[in-house]
């Protein structure tokens, strides 16, 4: 079984006919982990609670539009590089360009979607998303490690400052001591 078939796909579509059609195309390829919702609020809640590998997003949702969803999605940890395929009944190049600027991975006109194209794009997005998420996890680990190193560096710097202060005090005391007597040096060390 192909790896992309085990991925969780979220379909955000308000037209029940399109939901049935798109889930049918995916299920024909034995992709069964398809969650279908018809509003942005539910979709955002699902994204914040579950690891979604690919989002099929209708651009023309009532209320909050697909573009607004993209902006909101980026605020959820793990979705900075959104695994979104924008679906639309419109064929407007400006909309496609705006969607891509917001991080949409693909933009598909519903009138040109068939099973082969949809599956190819889903497979590509889920594969890319897997790499992006791994990269984000590794980056997060590096940032945590960097913070620990910075903290240790600050601790070492503080200890060096204390040691430098003590050495300066000893040096001043020795320079004022008549003849630098060993007994006086021992007395300074114990102080």
TrEMBL record:
Keyword Manganese found: no
CDD domains, alphabetized: REC
Chain segments annotated as coiled-coil in the UniProt record: 132-173
InterPro entries: Bact_response_regulator (IPR050595), CheY-like_superfamily (IPR011006), Sig_transdc_resp-reg_receiver (IPR001789)
GO biological process: phosphorelay signal transduction system
Modified residues (4-aspartylphosphate): 58
Keyword Phosphoprotein on entry: yes
Keyword line: Coiled coil, Phosphoprotein
Residue intervals of the Response regulatory domain: 8-125
Entries under Gene3D superfamilies matching the protein: 3.40.50.2300
Name used for this protein in its record: Response regulator
Organism: Rubellicoccus peritrichatus
